[in-house]
């Protein structure tokens, strides 16, 4: 006889999963107002208290936000640029353009030791490797190498990324119900390699801004390692520190 106990998920956790699925699928888009707690309780056949606990936790985790007297709304997911923008050097009031991603390749690789450690995984763990080129008004401005654990994101492939518009965070939310925020930013100047120079349209050995960071879920799990190479000769990296 098996000694394993059956897995039981509390009712409010089940409701949380159902609400997240609706947000991730796009049924409830950003800034959409949720049905009332009473209506959700009636729909799911649970108490209002159970719905309230689920909604409160999703609000604390950043999936939802509340406005006094108006209701509960779907919170926006974080941009893959976080609170950063590319602007002309010295132009602090310039309205930034939104970079658009172009998926170049999806492959698999073995994690280098430092990446495995950063992701909290074992040495040599398998990773998805996504390469993205970012453009502003058609001009290449940045190149991303994104590493994601295969065990965490099974069945990820180029088709799924393209269906999500080329964006990694949109893909993770829609396909895996995972929201990611960027953390642990590290900046340094690097020399451009030959392959990167061709993709970015710059001279080999030109100095680029390297930005390495991690992506964590709303409950603190590290699920992404990313390096972004930014053309810094004609662009400045500007942070908006206001929350």
Question: Keywords for this structure?
Answer:
7 helices; DNA-binding transcription factor activity; transcription; Chorismate lyase; Arc Repressor Mutant, subunit A; DNA binding; 10 strands; 243 residues; globular
3D structure, described in words:
This is Probable transcriptional regulator, GntR family. InterPro entries: Bact_HTH_transcr_reg, Chorismate_lyase_/UTRA_dom_sf, Tscrpt_reg_HTH_GntR, UTRA, WH-like_DNA-bd_sf, WH_DNA-bd_sf. The chain is an alpha+beta fold. It has 2 domains: about 10-75, Orthogonal Bundle (Arc Repressor Mutant, subunit A), CATH 1.10.10.10; about 85-240, 3-Layer(aba) Sandwich (Chorismate lyase). The protein is about 25% helix and about 35% strand. The chain contains 7 helices and 10 strands. It has helices at about 10-25, 35-45, 50-60, 115-120, 160-165, 170-175, 195-200; strands at about 65, 70-75, 85, 100-110, 125-135, 140-150, 180-190, 205-215, 220-230, 235-240. Strands 4-5-6-9-8-7 form a 6-stranded antiparallel sheet. Strands 1-2 form a two-stranded antiparallel sheet. Strands 3-10 form a two-stranded antiparallel ribbon. Helix 1 (about 10-25) packs across helix 3 and helix 1 (about 10-25) crosses helix 6. The protein is globular, with a radius of gyration of 21 Å. Residues about 1-5 have low confidence and may be disordered.
